[in-house]
Amino acid sequence: MCHFRRVLIPAMLLAVSIAACATMRQPSEKIDFYTLEYASPKVEDLKPIPATIRVERFTVAPMYNSTQIIYRDMSFKRDAYTYREWRANPGDLVTYFLARDLRESGLFEAVSPYGSRMQAQYVLEGSVDEFFESDTDKGWKAVLALSTTLMVDNEPDISKRIIFQKTFRSTRPCRQKNPMGVAAAMSEAMAEISGQIIRTVYDALEKRE
After folding, report:
1. pTM of the complete model
2. Which of 1, 74, 188, 190 reaches 20 to 30 Å from 93, CA-CA?
């Protein structure tokens, strides 16, 4: 019996080791990552103003605060793709592209991104309220909603600090019923809202200069 055990135990350990190695060698499911991609909106026939702006990181509503691509296919329900994700959190995506577009517009003296130590006269902050794929019988849409607040930086009088608060919303149809189509539609929605925010910020600050 002892001889049998001496043979059995090493054999079992060997089998477990082989099974573990086989599992490790099996490739895991590949995750595809998506991002926004669009040209900065063109804002023409406006004279640049000597205003400096800092864009703070946008917060994200709890149900969308993830790199997962969230979709809605019925009321009161949100679900997510398993192997399809955004390259970054929606708050980081929106913050980056909005700062880029404000800078590329050429309408302001300087635009600094989130985390910059550059002093600025004004601060733009906000939240990503909606960032999802909406599936209905009539087709798929990308839904994007941003709430924004433009403030005077370091203004001690709170009654004079806030310049405006405004929410922007856009829905864009997906030409393809897949994550690539959602990314393209969400890019169009971001481009539309970004252009609206640039014009709103400019109009508000142009009156102050």
Report:
1. 0.84
2. 74
